[in-house]
Task: structure prediction
Amino acid sequence: MKKYGLLISGLFVILAILLSGSQVIAAEKTGFVDIREVMMKSDAGKKASADFKRLYDKDRAQIQAKEEELKKLKDEVEKQRAILTEAAMKDKEASYQKKFRDYQLLVKDANEELQVRDQEFSKKLIPEILKVVHAIGEREKYTLIIDISAIPVAYHAKDKDLSKQVMEELNKTYKPTK
Result:
């Protein structure tokens, strides 16, 4: 939702600049930043990525253990299909179905937990990135800085990309809180 708000407001700013005349455009100073790249490559982003990897690896180990258990149970059911009574077979299949549902819940919960962690991280870091972008814009007299990760841009001059500068300043100023 925020992405579309940024897109719409960015388009209105661009439209206002275009409608205000070519003399004003010549005096404008526009920069570009890739906030997603800054989030991923900054020191804070790298730390969060390592935390996500540890959490993912822990969840993956549990999920793989459940998968192995399910595979063994299914193989057991298939091997015993010919010798089990109908009632015993239904019990085995019901047991398998219950364990399969538990497995699906485990996977769903693990994915949701990773998503929540990602959203929490973004919620903390994006305002800090925007503060740095604003400070650079004020200091270097930019009229407009566009987030190319949020707004599709057909072309932008690479020498006007401020992502590296934003990342460096963010690394100096941002101290994550626990």
About this structure: Confidence is low (pLDDT under 50) at residues 22-26. The radius of gyration is 26 Å. The CA atoms of residues 73 and 79 lie 10 Å apart.
